[in-house]
Amino acid sequence: MDGHEVVRLMTEKPPAHCILKIESFSVFQDASIYKCNEASFKSIAFGTGGYTWVLSVFPKGNKQEHVDDHLSVYVTLVDKLAPDAREKRFHYLKNTWGVSKFLPISTFNDPENGFLVDDYCVFGAEVFVLKNQAKISTMSIPEEDCVRSYTWRIKNFTLTTAPTNLYSPLDSSSGLNYGNKLYVEYFLKLKNQREGENHQKLCYQWFSASENRCGSSAFLSINDLLYSSKGYLVSNTLIVEVCVEKMFLLKD
Questions:
Q1: If residue 225 lies in a helix (H) or strand (E), which one and from where to where?
Q2: In CATH, what number does 3-125 get?
Q3: Model pTM?
Q4: Which of 191, 197, 147 is nearest to 166 (CA)?
Q5: What is the pLDDT of residues 1-40, one digit of tens each?
Q6: End-to-end CA distance of the chain
Q7: Domain 138-251 has CATH 2.60.210.10
Q8: Alpha-carbon torsion angle 147, 149, 153, 157, nearest 10
């Protein structure tokens, strides 16, 4: 763990998960087994968060991290994780994390600081396992080669006395799962069957499983629709077109 990732704080509460008490610290430190560069004091395995851990203390620093003037302290995950496990930080290739420069050895050895008193010291650890409950969403653009234009020829159109309403519903079988959303920006067009311009409106909305219809409640007045020179209604037939401009899919 890099230094900028370490948060140091003072607390009067003892560690909740592991306490390693070392009596006659100097004697243990001078034992042959601890004189090698790789040596560390290790606690008995302890369990928390559904996993098993071990606390390790390098009294002369972790030489593999090129540290010789600080105590190095680590927590190691004992359990074997599957290669596809996704625990934060700890995984099957990296099962040890800690602080290579935990405390200067000179500071630790000075009894005035209270860490090593009468050749006795105490180390501890608290491990909090955060379950990965984050909701991950991905916003993407659907395939570019999908159909972006749809045309309907409506024959024997029935007239009403209200302005013409035009909506574009999302097919319930489109596979949009609950919680997912589809943003669509498109033009609703009433084709001019003569030589005039088409009548169109830009529509946009986030579609979902519960909100699957979008359009215009006052797309075109009846008077404009019936006015023959407009060219929208010819031989009692309408031609409606939907042209999709943009689509964004938001999904789990």
A1: helix 222-226
A2: 2.60.210.10
A3: 0.49
A4: 191
A5: 444 455 666 777 777 889 899 888 888 777 766 655 557 8
A6: 31
A7: yes
A8: 120
